[in-house]
Amino acid sequence: MKISELSPEYRQPPPHTGFLTDLSTVVADVESFDTSPSSPEKLATDFRRILTNLGTVSSSLTHACRIQIWKLATRLWNACVDRANSTALARGPSARASEAEIRQAAPELLLLAGIPDEIPLAAAKLANFFFRAGKEWLELGRVDLATACFEKATPLVSATGPEEERRVLLDLNLARARAASGAGDQSLAVALLSRSKPLASASPEGIKSLAEAYLSVGEAALATKPSDPAVQASSILTEALDLCDKVASHSGASPKSPNLNELKGRCFRFLAVERLEAKDHEGTLRCIRVSRSSIGPAEEHPSMAILAIRAWLGSGNLLEAERELERLMVNPEAPEHMCVMAAEEYLASAGPEPARKVLVALAARCRAGGAAAAVRVVTKVVQGGIGSTGRARAISELVSDERVVALFAGPANSIQRGAMHSLLWSCGAEHFHAKNYNTSADFYERSMLYLSREEESRPGRAQCLRVLTLCHLALKQLDRALEFVNEADKVEHSVHCAFLKIKIHLQKNDTDEAIKQMKTMVGCVDFNPEFLVLITHEAIACKSTRVAVASLTFLLGLYSAGKPMSMPEVAVLRNLIELLRREQGTEDEILKYSRRAKLRMSDLGMEGFFGNGAVGGRELNWFADASWNMGSRLSKEKKYDLSAEFFELAAEFFGGASNGEGDGNLPKVCEALILSVTAMLSAEELNNSTLSDSDVKKGIQMLSRAGKLLPLIWHSVPVVSDQAEADNILYLHTFQYYQLLDRMDSSAHPQQLQLIKNFASSKACTPYHLLKIGVAASKSTPPNLLVAEFSLKASLNAALASQSPNYRVISAALRNLACLAGFQDLSGSESDAVYDVYRQAYQIVVGLRDGEYPSEEGQWLAVTAWNKSYLSRRLNQASVARKWMKMGLDLSRHLDNMKQYIASMEQCFESFRKMSDSEPSECILLGKKPDECSQQDGAPSTSMSLSTSQPILV
Questions:
Q1: Three-class SS of residue 453?
Q2: Which residue of 91, 509, 559, 781 lies most exposed, with the fewest beta carbons within 10 A?
């Protein structure tokens, strides 16, 4: 006897007892879902573990163990059904997936346990469990897991088996076809459906199920457009329709045959869709007619009317399309959104003309959403195009119809009202951009019909009125535009209204009113300085410089207040000066703003005011050039006071640059300083006034500053023409410096002389320059005789030393030297100084070609020399008289215009010589020799005033 047979405690437990206990515990947890704390995720994990363990021992299971597993799996399946029907469990995506996994564990356990013979139809039950588990996975979108369940179940049943197995096999094939269709494999789906035809033919229910499956696959093929040409949606749908006919034939034999009208209606509907997508409008209409004759219009789906509308529209038959639309509108089963969609499509082809009729009918049909439907319909009409005047007018009349406007009444339609307003506003904007201003204004006015009169709509109404103002402005209807903007100002006072009023006044050329309105605009709460910039542009476009200047002046005043501005102050000043330059008599204003630019440059610094880099350099150069040009222009107009100011400003601007830029501007700085002083002295001469001591000191300081720059620029001039200009600048500096020094006392005479000597030693000096300096020195009060004599002699010597002497300069220098020598004789200088000048002139004239020496100057020399003898004769100074007579006669012999006088002059001279030789006693009576008489009686005056005394030669 074995030991296990002796006592119970020595007996071995049944095999797999632990596994069954574990399975029973988990199944109990699934059953007690309302009290068990285990989550679906944990239960699914437990079943995965149990299935793994069972898979390792399934071959060694005893018959009793297999029966026990079948019982537990059946309990598990029933518990899963109860859990699915319960509302206490979570229904999230993760929980539903875990529940589906728990449900699938039941057939998996049965499959591993095997099919016992004593359980009837065990294989059909197991396959049915897999089928239902797969359907659960299909609902969750897991086609792969669903297909796996179906494939596990298919070998368990046979087409030759009992009816239950054939029924399950049919369900499996249809489910596999739907899964394949969902995965995009339409060819496999069609093959599975074809395989199911013998199984379905046994009963009307089976045929109907197969027809539904064909319809489902046909829908999918219609949506996915498979690439396989053998799989056509039309053929699949036709097959579904044929199966419906077979069901009808079975109905005569069986009173329990199902009602197939709905299924046939769906088949016809999708066949019509397929034909419509293929642009076969006649085929679509044929499907619709057959459908209506087959199932009757009472049971027809409303979407068939939409398909009919589309087909009639596609074939161009608007009348039939309208009839179908009316049929849809009166169909109580048709949803409102479907009626709206049909109206949209009809009006998209028919245009806006029938839109009013359709929209009124739609308003009567759509009780709750009439406003939304109207918005959709009008939107579709607008999308069809509003470019033509006729279409725009039709839309305008449509939206202004009282019945349509009434749809939007009430606070519940505020969103739709805003949508319609925005739609009409967009239409107006489109025409405005296309410059169809009449049509644009019409749309904007119609859009105001969809704005309430409440307080929150005031900004919108004001905006509409302002845009209408713009439309009438563009149409040159200025009075009408003014009416609209005044009304907008009453609704909402804003800077935009003031700006529009200014635009209107500008186009009316009412400058005073525009400036008055500008003052009002600046005081608006929402004022922005950018509006002043816009007004400037508008004023320039309207050629109203005065308004443009006023707007920039207002803008300039904001900078001093320290407000942040988008436009740089330097740009405002530049534009302001440029505008003022276009007007006459604005020099004082230009000077004022140019001074402001200089002051701001001093306060903010060059970069702080003009800007950094190249931009700042261009701004600075503009102000410098503008000041220079103004100074030059005013100098030509003999407005020397202003010219001096502008040249001084130009010097400051040109000198404001730093480093390399400053070096390039040094010539301009120097020249501007010199020209400023030149203008000051010219103003003094023109106004017959005297410079104040402060002005004289200021001029000397400016010339001293320029004098420091002259050596730096005079030797670096690269071009010959620029060298001539530089030479002239050096002369102007010397001449004006001399004149300012002349305003001081006589102690400055040595300084003046040294100044002229320095200039005479420079290469810039010319005989003409020295001549002018000499003339100025001789005419000053009192005359600077040293400077005059030096300058005139240096001018004469330089001119004579030239390769091509300028005898006009030489003759002028000789005349002024002669006059200066006469003045010195009267002052007690040597008496022969005047005669030396004439003798030098004679030496110059001798040998010249006829006309080379200026004739009037030569005549002056000859006549004045001859006339000087007149006083000597009266004073009985015979030798002096003979000397001057001979000089005049000698000069005349070398001058063409004096030849007519030579004979009489020679006769007169000979007569005087004989007379003076025969009467020496007059001198003897005085106890002196003739020569002594002529020397001691005093020389006659040779000044310019004596040349106008009674001469012998006229």
A1: coil
A2: 781
